[in-house]
Design brief:
Layout: E1 13-17, H1 24-31, E2 43-44, E3 47-48, H2 54-64, E4 65-68, H3 80-85, H4 95-108, H5 124-136, E5 142-146, H6 154-169, E6 173-177, H7 181-186, E7 189-194, E8 197-203
Parallel strand pairs: 1-6, 1-7, 4-5, 5-6
Antiparallel strand pairs: 2-3, 7-8
């Protein structure tokens, strides 16, 4: 990434697009504090967080940011609700409350009847919705999504977009990497990257 300057407001739905190797996933990693910039700064809620210690960045990720990974990153040996409850472990929440929170969000996403299934027993679309549930279980302010509709069928893609629209309506900030035209149509702002640079940045 070079010379990137973005101002993302609370409740914005930003879609990052561009060819392979243009820096899309790198940008998400920087915004999610999974990588440190070699130059420049990152602010969240008016706090310069890019120079914080690893421990503080971990705390900010746990409190403010939810991640939806392209490959789901679910643990196959765990049940769906156990996967969803994992981000709550670092909050010193009792098991029964972690399970209740996981079951509630799975039910909201139409997966209540699949909560006791291992992830290998779920369809690809169900795995993606489980990954979304895991990102939302901590009620984060910011959701970072890497190609959230790339590996699902059209019906599941429509369902995921409805979830994103509901999150935006509730004031959540969503930053999604996507080539999906349906996702691009929903974005408030489209950021097109090429060779690590912002080639286009337009409000819709």
């Amino acid at each position: 990434m070079r010379d990137v300057s973005l101002d993302i407001g609370s409740g914005d739905f930003i879609v990052v697009t561009g060819p392979s190797g243009s820096g899309k996933t790198t940008l998400l990693s920087l915004l999610g504090l999974l990588a440190r910039p070699t130059r420049g700064t990152i602010f969240i809620d008016d706090q310069e967080v890019s120079s914080y210690s690893d421990a503080w960045q971990t705390r900010i990720r746990g409190e403010k940011i939810g991640f939806i990974f392209q490959q789901h990153n679910l643990l196959p040996q765990f049940l769906a609700w156990e996967n969803v409850s994992l981000p709550l472990l670092c909050r010193d929440i009792r098991l029964d409350k972690r399970k209740r929170a996981a079951l509630d969000i799975l039910h909201e996403l139409g997966l209540g009847s699949r909560s006791d299934f291992k992830t290998a027993q779920l369809s690809v679309g169900e795995q993606q919705r489980t990954a979304i549930a895991r990102a939302l279980v901590t009620d984060p302010e910011i959701i970072l999504a890497d190609e959230p509709t790339a590996s699902v069928d059209i019906e599941t893609g429509v369902h995921i977009l409805k979830i994103f629209k509901s999150l935006k309506k509730s004031g959540k900030t969503i930053i999604a990497v996507s080539h999906d035209q349906a996702v691009l149509r929903e974005g408030d702002q489209i950021v097109e990257l090429r060779d690590g640079l912002v080639a286009k940045n337009r409000r819709m």
